[in-house]
Amino acid sequence: MPETQATERRSSRVFTRIPVQVRGKNVDGLKFRAKSQTIVINAHGGLLYLDQLLVIGAELVLINPATEEEQECRVVYLGDVSEKGTRVGVEFLSPSPHFWGVEFAQQDWLTGAPPTSPN
After folding, report:
1. Which of 9, 17, 75, 79 could be stapled to 58 by a disulfide with Cβ–Cβ 3.0 to 4.6 Å?
2. Residue-number span of the structural domain to which 61 is assigned
3. Burial track 18-54 (b if 16+ CB lie within 10 A, e otherwise)
4. Would the pTM count as exceeding 0.85?
5. pLDDT at residue 10 greater than cutoff 50
6. Total domains in the fold of the chain
7. CATH number where 61 lies
8. Does 53 map to a domain?
């Protein structure tokens, strides 16, 4: 991934493993439901392992088993294959900053000056 994309991120990334369930159709048009885990998450989507053949633009539904919340997303990246599956980057179709159950720092908090004391 080029460095310019890393500096243009809309939200901070968190490297964490969160179990998820994924529903969708693979390249053959067959419906699937799979258990997975995240590699990286942010307020707009995430990167996870999946053992299905997919194409860029495929629509999936992620289910957070802890909250049973569902979130529609689209495949935006297909990466390396490992014993855990293919690294699949997904982007939420509508903003859902609380889907993962993690609070994300806003970009200006990360680059701004430290707050001054009220005294």
Report:
1. 75
2. 9-97
3. bebebebebeeeeebebebebbebbbbbbbbbbbbeb
4. no
5. yes
6. 1
7. 2.40.10.220
8. yes
Identify whether the C-beta of residue 67 lies closer than 8 Å to the C-beta of residue 53.
no
Residue 59 lies in a domain: yes
> What's the rounded Cα separation, in Å, for the pair 106 and 12?
7
Q: What is the pLDDT of residues 50-103, one digit of tens each?
A: 999 999 999 999 999 999 999 999 999 999 999 989 999 999 999 787 899 877
Which secondary-structure segment (H or E) carries 4?
A: helix 3-7
Q: What is the pLDDT of residue 7?
A: 47
What single string gives the DSSP state of each residue in 17-86?
A: --EEEEEEE-TTS-EEEEEEEEEEEETTEEEEEE-S---TT-EEEEEETTTTEEEEEEEEEEEEEETTEE
Whether 73 and 91 have beta carbons less than 8 Å apart is answered as yes
Residue 3 in any domain: the answer is no
Given this model, what pLDDT does residue 97 score? Answer: 78
